[in-house]
Amino acid sequence: MPLSDRVLMGPGPCNLYPEVVAAMVRPMLGHLDPEFLGVLDETCERLRTVFRTTNRLTLPLSGTGSAGMEAAFVNLVAPGDPVVVGVNGVFGQRMVEVAQRCGAEVTKVEVPWGEPIDPAALLGAHPAPKIIAVVHAETSTGVRNDIEALGQGKGDALLVVDAVTSLGGMPFEADAWGVDLAYSATQKCLGVPPGLAPITVNERARAAMVPRPRSWYLDLSLIGDYVDSSGGRTYHHTAPVPMVFALHAGLGALLDEGLEQSWARHQHCGQILHEGLDKLGFHLFARDGHRLAQLTTAWVSERHLPSGVDEAQMREILLSRYGIEIGGGLGPVVGKVWRIGCMGHTARVRNVTLLLGALAEVRA
Amino acid sequence: MPLSDRVLMGPGPCNLYPEVVAAMVRPMLGHLDPEFLGVLDETCERLRTVFRTTNRLTLPLSGTGSAGMEAAFVNLVAPGDPVVVGVNGVFGQRMVEVAQRCGAEVTKVEVPWGEPIDPAALLGAHPAPKIIAVVHAETSTGVRNDIEALGQGKGDALLVVDAVTSLGGMPFEADAWGVDLAYSATQKCLGVPPGLAPITVNERARAAMVPRPRSWYLDLSLIGDYVDSSGGRTYHHTAPVPMVFALHAGLGALLDEGLEQSWARHQHCGQILHEGLDKLGFHLFARDGHRLAQLTTAWVSERHLPSGVDEAQMREILLSRYGIEIGGGLGPVVGKVWRIGCMGHTARVRNVTLLLGALAEVRA
User: Which of A251, A271, A281, B197 could connect to A46 by a Cys-Cys bridge, CB 3.0–4.6 Å?
Assistant: First the structure.
């Protein structure tokens, strides 16, 4: 059955760069084929550029963004290790859950949804944490948490950052900010389908990795021996070849445009979306000054909706009538907030214009 | 840079069914889009047909086959649980490693590479194991291990089977054989790229799952709540949408042909390959009577090679001159054995004819 062609303005996945679609069907290669390894090497090099790092251990993990989160904790946490986690949304809370399953003694620093986390609170939460972990761009709330101050104040702790919704869409500086480990996902501002988790680990974090993590599949030492040519290309698991092609192409499109230009494009689209929503009478959910451009959250109430239509039905109308997907709220704001993504190839002025026009039209 | 179009006769990945290539570029959808959920439901139903099961918990995990292995043990093993593992190759040994990292007390039943594992030895290895685990089709040796007798004799133990290289390419009967949990991979006899791990779990194994496994990413209860509509589609992680499209299409192609017909095609190709290699003077590695058709292992020595060319160089000649990939040996038989896959869309008589012709031509 034919599938509909959507304008994907939810919290991810986004629409794909045309170059990515083409790359998905490049000829299939074996995971040890020299031609594939060449593409893989180039992909890792492009990831370094986008993460703004020289970290040797920089690669795409064979799982979605959540696998990146799990890899971070499973490789760094030994049972009983103290870990400080900032929580102001679903993904901070997920970090707590994942770290605890790895055996961490977690200290939570929690603030209300919609608010950013004060770096000082994170830095002061525990006298000697092994890890301080925070989400850079909270996909569940549209809030940006500050990273740079954490890198400056972390002391002996390792700074672990979730860059799932930030990478490629806003400034992220792994090395300059003192980030020891960061992971991301492909289906947000990189314009690639979901399926891989880019990750980067500096030498300080590598030295702190547990020798035999509880997960074999996400063991970064073993994976590094395959991905990094200096590891002798030791077989670990079969790389998901077409997804690597897709990521390679998406990063290529992004870097052909320019990393700063991509940041600026996401920023510009978010800004006109924020202004347009304001004109339509919406109130934005995330605290002013810490709002993401690539993922906008707005309160939704009856006055934004046609009479007798609730927010879920309105999203259904957008989907069926215009082919536009936007996202609903999660957790405490389910049914009260929309999440509107403008990421990757979706981050075009025309898509913002379309959505604002559709919202006005349906309500009229 | 353009990539070469290979004939993939290594131990996987195989060549893709044309329907799979087309499906990779179906319009991108969100992971909660009703149209995507329809494709996902149909994919799970097709997996049940191919696994020969009615198990409700049957789904594609968002990782490669090795993630399927890890999911099996991480969901079933509590620290200290006794687990019996059959080892006659790399993947049996990997099961030991993964189970141990989950905290299992592993009893190994080891036999030499190339030999099958006697079911009686597995059944008698421990008085009360929680799990008996074995690889059905050892990709590292080309050996088939018997499953049915294990299901008959397992008693209170759970039978966990690695069906990575068997599923779709030879008889596999999850329900009739009494398999409690089986996992597979997409890039072998299903003719799909690497990236997903189909898994099926019966009610007996579900009841034995640990309540909060060490892995959040591979927590089958949480994943089931998203994949199974009765779980309310609770968001867990973002599904790798195009890979699900690819698996859906690969299973569609396979079932349009017919499951038994696919088994027979793999069997036929393997048989003419075995006969052809014999005529060329090769000796097969795997024990007669337990040889896989879809993955053939053969001893390689100087008399099979042009003078001055070693086996790795010969594989390189096949790759560069003919675009044919075959695999080298692993572990104790590295440099001594070839592994020749004939799986998925690669399992065509013409590919066997081509490889045999190329081997004869290069040696001449």
Answer: A251
Rounded to whole angstroms, the Cα distance separating B306 from A18 reads 46
Residues with Cβ within 8 Å of residue A353, at least 6 apart in sequence? none
Report yes or no: B62 at the A interface, CB cutoff 8 Å. yes
Supply the DSSP symbol for B167: T
Give B 232-261 residues with CB within 8 A of chain A.
235-243, 246
**Residues B141-170, mean pLDDT to the nearest whole number:** 98
Starting at the earlier edge strand, list the strands of the sheet with A337-341: A7-9, A324-328, A337-341, A295-299, A283-284
User: Any chain B CB within 8 A of the CB of A270?
Assistant: no
What is the percent of chain A with per-residue pLDDT over 90, rounded to a whole number? 97
Contacts of B215 in chain A (CB under 8 A): 70, 74, 101, 214-215
Name the closest residue on chain A to residue B188, using Cα atoms: A238
Q: Which helix (H) or strand (E) holds A231?
A: none
- Cross-chain Cβ contact B66/A237 below 8 Å: yes
Give the distance, in angstroms, between the CA of residue B247 and the centroid of all CA atoms in the same chain. 14
Work out the burial of residue B303: count CB atoms within 10 Å of its CB; fewer than 13 is exposed, 13-18 middle, 19 or more buried: exposed
pLDDT reading at A250 higher than 90: yes
Does the pTM surpass 0.95? The reply is yes
Q: Is A187 part of the contact surface with chain B (CB cutoff 8 Å)?
A: yes
Q: Which fold has domain B18-257?
A: Aspartate Aminotransferase; domain 2 (3.40.640)
Distance from the B176 Cα atom to the nearest Cα atom in chain A, whole angstroms: 30
Query: Is the per-residue pLDDT at B135 higher than 90?
Result: yes
Residue A141 has pLDDT above 90, yes or no: yes
CA-CA distance, B17 to B345, in Å (whole number)? 5
Q: Min CA distance, B252 vs chain A (Å)? A: 12
Q: What percent of chain A has pLDDT over 70?
A: 100
CB spacing of A39 vs B3 below 8 angstroms = yes
**Residues 6 or more apart from A190 whose CB is under 8 A from it?**
A50, A167, A168, A184, A198, A247, A250, A251, A254, A344
CATH number of the domain at B7-12+259-363, please? 3.90.1150.10
Partner A contacted by B312 (CB < 8 A) = no
DSSP state, residue A89: S
Statement: residue A363 has pLDDT above 90:
no
Q: Do B238 and A28 touch (CB under 8 A)?
A: no
**B68 → chain A, closest CA residue:** A217
ipTM: 0.98
